[in-house]
Amino acid sequence: MINAHIDQYPGLKQDRALLESIPGVGPVISQQMVALLRGRRFVTALQCAAFLGLVPVHHESGSSVRGRSRLSKAGNVQLRAKLYMAAITATCHNPGIKHQYERLLRQGKP
């Protein structure tokens, strides 16, 4: 049903095609992202990431840092889970993402 709606509108169809051109992003993620994000206006990518709950939240109190940073988890749970699986797939099959992932691991990043 959502795919039929997306196919009726060239802008939505183009957005879905652009998303699916990213290695690791398939029809399920692209469809859900178009449905969730297309009706909203974001000035920056950071605003979109915050909306999805993908920005880190730091645990700080005064001059001390307590614990590791974690994702804010403020956004859509199902989409965040699908994006996580896409990221895991990309670390294995997308050379650019794999290189960045290995570099961050060498730096001790979680």
Description:
The protein has 110 residues and is mainly alpha-helical. It has a domain at 43-75. Helices cover 60% and strands 7% of the residues. The protein has helices at 2-8, 10-20, 27-37, 45-52, 77-93, 95-106; strands spanning 56-57, 60-61, 64-65, 70-71. It has a two-stranded antiparallel ribbon with strand order 1-4.
Order of helices and strands: HHHHEEEEHH
**How far apart are the termini?**
39 Å
Classify the helix fraction into a percent range: 55-70%
Number of strands: 4
Overall average pLDDT: 86
Side by side, the strands of the main sheet go 1-4
Low-confidence stretches: none
Radius of gyration: 16 Å
Share of residues in strands: 5-15%
Discrete helix count = 6
Which structural class do you get from the secondary structure elements? mainly alpha
Biggest sheet, open or closed, and with what strands and sense?
Answer: 2 strands, antiparallel
